[in-house]
Design goal:
Order of helices and strands: EEHHHH
Number of strands: 2
Number of helices: 4
Distance between the termini: 48 Å
Length: 97
């Protein structure tokens, strides 16, 4: 499976909920979330990623557990995005010869 598509499961109320996360899902979520709107983009991201066999479980959990869409979105995004580390170096300002 491509690094850009990941399948994962999250246990919700003792049952496994299955998710398929794509780069498109992740990028759209990242672009949609802002200081004044976190809940709707989080819920949309979670439901876009939720496999058909888990939609009822996830939807009921979100409806009955305030703020859970933000927690689920965070868990899914965190698992999807690889850990990255960069070393930033200053470039020499001396002119090239």
């Amino acid at each position: 499976m491509s690094k850009n598509i990941q399948q994962l499961s999250i246990e919700i109320d003792g049952k496994d909920a299955n998710f398929t996360v794509t780069r498109e899902h992740f990028n759209r979520y990242t672009n949609d979330i802002n200081m004044n709107d976190k809940v709707a983009p989080s819920q949309q991201f979670v439901m876009r990623c939720t496999d058909d066999d888990s939609k009822t479980l996830v939807k009921e959990f979100i409806n009955n557990t305030p703020g859970s869409e933000i927690d689920l979105a965070g868990a899914i995004a965190s698992e999807y995005k690889p850990d990255t580390e960069f070393v930033v170096k200053k470039r020499s300002t001396a002119p090239s010869k």
